[in-house]
Amino acid sequence: MNRPLLAETVAEAARRFGNRAAFQLADGTELSYRELDRASDEVAAGLAGRGLGPGSVLLLSLPSGLEYAVGYLAAAKVGAATAGANPRLRARERALIVEAVDPDLILANDALSDGIPEDCRVELVDNSTDPTQLLAGLRGHGGVVPAVPADPDRPTCICFTSGTTGDPRGAWFTDRQLVAIHALDTGGAWGSGGHMVSGTAFAHVGVMTKLGWQLASGATIHVMDRWTASGLLDLVERYRLPAVNGVAAQISLLMQEPGFDDRDLSCVRSIVVGAGPSPPALVIEARERFGAAYSIRYSSTESGGTGLGTALDADDDEALYTVGRPRPGVAAEVRDGDSQTLTDGEVGELWLQTPSAMSGYWNDPGGSTEALVDGWLRTGDLAHVDDAGCFRLAGRVKEMYIRGGYNVYPLEVEAVLGTHPAVAQVAVVPRPDSTMGEIGVAVIVPADPDHPPTLHDLIAHGHDDLSGYKLPGAVRIVDRLPLNAGDKLDRRTLAAHEARSQTGD
Fold first, then answer.
1. 226 Cβ contact list (under 8 Å, min separation 6)
2. What are 307's strand-pairing partners?
3. I need a surface site. Which of 30, 164, 188, 330 has the fewest CB within 10 A?
4. Nearest Cα to 42, choosing from 71, 63, 84?
5. Where are the domains of the chain?
């Protein structure tokens, strides 16, 4: 490989697949592999003319679509790293992303520019579906793309997750990890076409670290800027997709869609579900109603989106109650607080060893040292290994929970809700939910017991500062919050109450 990985991949894909559609939008707009290569070449020339090159960082605050893909590939061609801001972020959250990454240039559209500090170098992008006009203001027509040599250890992309307080943390990856992910996911081979659906934001690790092998597959990638159950089912039926991918909440919503059982989904052979475990009842229902195998995949942003998984032919004990075994090329262990490996059955922190794991957290050496230890990644999740060698999650070292596939950190939500004038004290804890996996419950000590805040009040108060998935799904009013022996908030007691409330105990 003589050029950066993504630069070489898109050029070879253009040669192999030519006028085949690389991307197709919901309105039918297509961008061919040849057009994708040409557009990213011209934008790369424009980025180079603006001084971007190896060591630079481009931040994309754009919708998931053609402009994002072209911008990302163009940055790779000049050797710059790309960071993505999820379009679901609010202005305050977007500002934190900018602060964390300190980009050399930001590409944003009007709708996704709120929160970007005024002293940043920003170029506003006009949305276009004309392949010749994508990122038109940056295209260096006739310009030369600089010859940037390959460097497997140069940063390629930065994918944001959140720390224990909800502040963004950028997991950064190099070509070395992207090559490893291609090998882990596909065996490193080039494909010959087909169709796949991109149902997550392009800023997500599932696109940023996997776009290379997706382009190498030769498939047409159908872009869902905003995921809908009906939209995905339409694509499955029309293009006879053999697999359905998503998070547990999305699978639940698919089966709740009116007319689901009247659709012809006989093409579906497998359901692959990530972002944490799935409720056993959901697995049973999905296998029956889709008539397909169900595989749970456990991974994280930091792991590069690879980790453990249940087998498609797993028995019920594995399929319903575990996150399976390490995928080929991945190792996993359960360790105690002293980093010593525990025996099967003992609960401790889950550690992963995978060539896809991040190089570290961007501009956060302390966090990187804590997360990456001697080639292993500390996940922060508690687990144990059962008699069959499968891993079973037992909770989280920290208080983060997952709502519909998105990580939510209570301290961040509490900091916003706690400013409501009717709130004296607040704690946010998870409650099991059959559709979303978990929802947040705001446990409130009201400032005036006779006039406690309602759920509507809290959602309205937090709307401008928190993404929708971070907002609470329920409220419980209490006289006081429980404390533990150290006079600290007893989150375990609160979470146990919510779990019991769902079982009726």
1. none
2. none
3. 188
4. 71
5. 1-226, 401-503
The model's pTM = 0.85
| pLDDT value for 381 | 87
The one-letter amino acid at 145: V
Domain 401-503: give its CATH code. 3.30.300.30
* 17, 31, 103, 214, 283 from 13: Cα distances, Å: 6, 13, 29, 10, 37
On whether the CB atoms of residues 276 and 300 are closer than 8 A, the answer is: no
Statement: 1-226 belongs to CATH 3.40.50.12780: yes
Per-residue pLDDT, 395: 66
Cβ–Cβ < 8 Å for 93, 150: no
- Count other Cβ atoms within 10 Å, centred on residue 283: 24
Over the stretch 245-255, which tens digit does the pLDDT of each residue have? 998 888 989 99
Condensed to tens digits (0 to 9), the pLDDT of residues 84-115 reads: 999 988 899 899 999 999 999 999 999 999 99
Residue 487 banded pLDDT, cuts 50, 70, 90: low
Non-local CB neighbours of 469 within 8 Å, separated by 6+ positions: 88, 403, 404, 406, 408
